[in-house]
Specification:
Helix content: 40-55%
Structural class: alpha/beta
CATH class of the largest domain: Alpha Beta
């Protein structure tokens, strides 16, 4: 058994897949990639690729971690500590969240700067261990989470060092400080693996294993696929050929449906594919939809549909079914994304525009703010703002949304970006379906700031065809970031302002809706989005 089964339907899609596979075979791509040939993506990418291919041989290091993770889990549970909180962004949090959701074991993920969501995670401290995951430790969100966790443990009379577990790169500043502080455990990951390719490294295994998932089985599932990766008939190569070849041929929107046996996989795949491919004006835009019958799954000339599941399923009429267990899916999609980058002729291992939003956030926090403007209109707990020219002569919220939908260009998309609490304000996610039902173009939805570490790269570095709906909410009870001169609320606002500036600098239409009362405003917005 190869670990994955990849089946594609649709004559035109099969044709571009086969043409890409023929080129790959002619150039010996499968063997070269499995052999970690860093020259595959061109001379400009070679230096980075040479230190970003460690995900191809993570299984043995992963197996060495399994008994250590199990021993620490048993140790903690013997002390009554059975609740795991993971603080991390992007690749440091998405994979373990999928592993635990699929396995049915609880894991609290903090990948936000919303003060309410952060505060809600730091409860039940007598039975909580906090895993802080960051390659460098310098990510502003994760550093803020760590500071808040230490303060919460201190306030509860619990030694923070005994309840903090760190996952980072060897030799990083974070590794050094964690050792100096005497953290309960420090796990070092392979530095030659980028964050979004790290599902089967310590970043994916440690938090999931501590929460109770069988991470050894996850590695076994990946191992079944591993021998095929050097072969021309590899299912992972076929998947990469349909993703990359389809995008080159104009099908650069990837509609993702997570099927039976996997939970939340689309969110992980979205980050991997979007951040890896969205640059140089190119990219594959993933659209994670709720089901096969959800708005946005209809066939379109610029999209392809992929159904990902553990249980066998027929491929859609125009699209691909990717069947296999979670460990094989992780490895197979990482390989396929590298192949898609080869087909698109871009470097799938860098993320040049992610830093841009970080820099703009820092500028806002430092006081270099854009001019504050009065809202164009206020309705039912919603303040309406927009970039120039978008809302000329608009009188109400419904008209503002109509104008936004009308601004989406041919082959474009609408991205909904919610700087809210993804649990307390969970209803905001309904906006994707409501707006997609009214628009003949793809609609994506992302919780902020987590999307800044995934689709945020494609928004700025990919094709400039996006139109954006940014949603922010009033903070009624802020939370301090110990040792910093900003709060979580001000950081969240700065991230929204910084990204808005980055999008506006590219002349992309942005509608900003600020919920002055989150419950009332969200109800008003959902009603308007539904056309009522």
């Amino acid at each position: 058994m190869s670990g994955l089964d990849v089946q594609t339907s649709g004559g035109a899609l099969i044709e571009v897949r086969n043409a890409t596979l023929a080129s790959a075979r002619e150039q010996g791509l499968a063997a070269a990639l499995a052999g970690k040939d860093a020259t595959l993506w061109g001379p400009e990418a070679s230096a980075e690729a040479s230190v970003r291919l460690g995900w191809l041989d993570v299984l043995d290091p992963g197996r060495e971690l399994v008994p250590r993770i199990a021993a620490l889990r048993d140790e903690l549970r013997a002390e009554g500590v059975d609740r795991v909180v993971l603080c991390g962004m992007g690749g440091s949090s998405l994979a373990p969240e999928v592993v635990c959701a699929t396995a049915g074991v609880p894991l609290v993920v903090v990948d936000t700067t919303d003060p309410g969501q952060v505060r809600a995670a730091l409860v039940d401290l007598e039975r909580t261990v906090v895993v802080v995951s960051s390659k460098s430790g310098g990510t502003i969100e994760t550093d803020s989470h760590r500071r808040a966790a230490r303060a919460a443990f201190d306030a509860a009379g619990i030694d923070p060092a005994r309840r903090l577990v760190v996952v980072t790169d060897p030799g990083s500043p974070f590794a050094e400080s964690a050792e100096q502080e005497g953290c309960r455990a420090v796990f070092l990951a392979d530095p030659d693996v980028g964050g979004r390719y790290s599902a089967l490294t310590a970043f994916g295994l440690v938090p999931a294993g501590l929460a109770g998932a069988d991470v050894g089985a996850l590695l076994d599932e990946a191992e079944a696929l591993l021998p095929t990766l050097s072969q021309d008939d590899s299912p992972a190569l076929a998947l990469g050929a349909v993703l990359g070849g389809g995008a080159v041929a104009g099908r650069d929107k990837l509609v993702v449906v997570t099927g039976d046996g996997l939970v939340g996989f689309g969110d992980w795949a979205e980050q991997l594919v979007a951040e890896s491919t969205g640059k140089q004006g190119k990219g594959v835009l993933p659209i994670v939809v709720e089901s096969l019958s959800a708005p946005g799954t209809e066939p379109a000339a610029d999209s392809q549909l992929v159904v990902v599941g553990a249980a066998p399923t027929e491929p859609p009429a125009i699209g691909t079914a990717v069947t296999g267990p979670l460990g094989a899916q992780f490895l197979g999609w990482e390989y396929a994304t590298a192949v898609a980058g080869w087909a698109l002729r871009i470097n799938p291992f860098d993320q040049p525009n992610v830093q841009e939003s970080k820099d703009r956030t820092a500028e806002v926090l430092a006081g270099s703010r854009a001019e504050t403007r009065e809202p164009l209109l206020v309705e039912g707990g919603v303040e309406v703002h927009a970039t120039a020219g978008l809302l000329d002569d608009v009188k109400d919220l419904t008209g503002a949304l109509d104008a936004l939908l009308a601004a989406v260009p041919e082959r474009g998309y609408l991205a909904v970006m919610a700087y809210l609490d993804r649990f307390a304000d969970a209803g905001a996610a309904r906006l994707r379906e409501l707006l997609a039902a009214r628009l003949a173009h793809p609609v994506t939805f992302g919780w902020a700031p987590r999307f800044l570490h995934s689709t945020g790269q494609l928004h700025k570095g990919g094709p400039q065809t996006g139109v954006f709906l940014q949603i922010t909410g009033a903070v009624t009870e802020d939370l301090e970031v110990p040792g910093r001169d900003f709060t979580f609320g001000s950081l969240q606002a700065a991230q929204a302002a910084g990204d808005l500036t980055a999008l506006a600098s590219r002349d992309r239409p942005v509608l900003l809706l600020h919920l002055t009362d989150r419950a009332e405003g969200l109800a008003t917005l959902l009603a308007a989005a539904g056309g009522r």
